[in-house]
Amino acid sequence: MYAVFKRELFSLLNSLMAYITIGIFLLATGLLLWLFPDTSILDYGYAELSGFFNLAPFLFLFLIPALTMRSFAEERREGTYVLLATRPLSDWQIIMAKYFSCYLLVIFSLLPTVVYYFSIYKLALPIGNVDSGAVIGSYIGLLLLSAAFTAAGIFASSVTKNQVIAFAVSVFICFIAFSGFDAMSRIFGLSALEGILLSLSINEHYQSISRGVLDTRDLVYFVSFVLFFLGLTRWVLGGRKW
Q1: Which of 3, 90, 134, 186 is the most buried (most CB within 10 A)?
Q2: How many Cα atoms are found within 13 Å in the side-chain-facing hemisphere of 110?
Q3: Cα(207)–Cα(175) distance, rounded to whole angstroms?
Q4: Dihedral of CA 158/163/169/171: which sign?
Q5: To 10 degrees, what angle do helices 202-210 and 50-68 make?
Q6: For residue range 79-121, what is the model confidence (pLDDT) as tens digits?
Q7: Are 157 and 73 in contact (CB under 8 A)?
């Protein structure tokens, strides 16, 4: 499993697409948080990163599918997955190796944004007047959200040989899971149905963790979401192998 993980990670690091997507993510967040007057922290007047944590999920809707779209689609298009499947590795080991390599790259893209926290920490009056607990909770929520999006992206890549189709399917799944259930909960008037739809929404659980409260229900939701889509990936690959 480690050999597949290392091969996949080095393949992503040698890919120009990975650097372009991560660069776009950092450039977009930097411009929106510090330069554009409508969203700038400097014009907002408060030492907080709520703007970044509200913006990052929508950027991840495109960043993560761009990183995961090639994981299985390219292997199947080039025929190298047959060689990979004949090695003494289970389907779960192959899936987890690809999943963790993509997820680690997403974490790498988040690391430079820690500079934003230290910047507002120094700019605050008095220095250090920042709600660090909320920032830590928001980062944990963002890590859990990116784990869920990565699992959905891995699944989308397993159902097709075309990377563009895998990207589109992944964006659609992530968008529905993040914003779609929220929108549907407002359409239907039944309160019972509204509660069910909100409980299925990633945004609802993400906002809950971002408030600095780690609820077991939110953690169970994200773990279940990841396992569900990785299980679907295992089912797709197992069916094709059979």
Answers
A1: 134
A2: 25
A3: 16
A4: positive
A5: 140
A6: 666 666 666 677 888 889 889 999 999 999 899 988 888 888 7
A7: yes
The distance in angstroms from the start CA to the end CA of the chain is 21
Distance, in Å, from the CA atom of 9 to the CA atom of 26, rounded to the nearest integer, reads 20
Rounded to whole angstroms, the Cα distance separating 168 from 180 reads 16
Q: What is the DSSP letter of 160?
A: -
Q: What is the pLDDT of residue 155?
A: 94
| Closest CA relative to residue 56, chosen from 157, 156, 172, 139 | 139
pTM assigned to the model: 0.89
| Domain residue spans of the chain | 2-241
How many whole angstroms separate alpha carbon 233 and alpha carbon 172?
A: 17
Closest-CA residue to 50 (of 174, 170, 137): 137
Quickly count: other Cβ atoms within 10 Å of residue 7's Cβ. Answer: 14
102: CB partners within 8 A, 6+ apart: 8, 12, 64, 67, 68, 71, 150, 153, 154
| Band (242; pLDDT cuts 50, 70, 90) | very low
Q: Per-residue confidence at 18, pLDDT binned at 50, 70, 90? A: confident
For residue 150, CA distances in Å to 47, 107, 132, 155 come to 31, 11, 27, 9
Chain-centroid distance, C-alpha 56: 9
Give CA–CA dist 54/43, Å, rounded.
Answer: 17
Distance CA 123, CA 129 (A): 9
Scan for tokens 């290392």, then name that residue.
6
